[in-house]
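User: I'm putting together a teaching handout on how multi-component assemblies are represented. Below are the sequence lines for each component of a complex, exactly as they appear in our records. Could you produce the 3D structure of the whole assembly as structure tokens, so the students can see both representations side by side? Please keep the chain order the same as the input.
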Amino acid sequence: GAVVSQHPSWVICKSGTSVKIECRSLDFQATTMFWYRQFPKQSLMLMATSNEGSKATYEQGVEKDKFLINHASLTLSTLTVTSAHPEDSSFYICSARGDSGYGYTFGSGTRLTVV
Amino acid sequence: KNEVEQSPQNLTAQEGEFITINCSYSVGISALHWLQQHPGGGIVSLFMLSSGKKKHGRLIATINIQEKHSSLHITASHPRDSAVYICAFAVRTDKLIFGTGTRLQVFP
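Assistant: Of course. Below is the structure of the complete assembly, with chains in the same order as your input.
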């Protein structure tokens, strides 16, 4: 079945540094990638939607200069948290969708801790 | 009113019990998804259904489009079924609208 590989699974970084999270679709072409953020015991919150080769569409309230999304190929999308602050500590997860059907495949998530 | 509501929010069960989780939505949809989020955070897509019933192992999902209601059933529940179960559907832009999730704990 469809697989999305997300790395790293966890990362600890210092305030002010940038962190890059990668999501790769291993056996299908991800025409659309979704990036979510999740706080403890809360539902997934959509941050942005990206289509291959296009600029990402950010949800209201999400700073596009802080959360840089790149979807340069049909198998790779990245989320870079720039100048990270402790309040950016959260669980980030991607989801990919190909052209066929309505299926969504999720990555395993990245737990980011900013100290 | 939320577009999608799940019940119950929390559910505990003894191993072997039959589990039912309900999902009601308020808009017309073409397909509904059931997702499982493990304690570590990873999400697995269990079902995508637009009508009738689907079965995979001990999991059964049903949907009634007219009543805007779906259920997820787990037969012979096991402690490894402990997870958060989420129903979701996509709107026009492919964005998924998520339910609040049902936290299931199955005790041996």
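A couple of points students might notice: Chain A is about 0% helix and 50% strand. Residues 33 and 114 of chain A are 25 Å apart (CA to CA).
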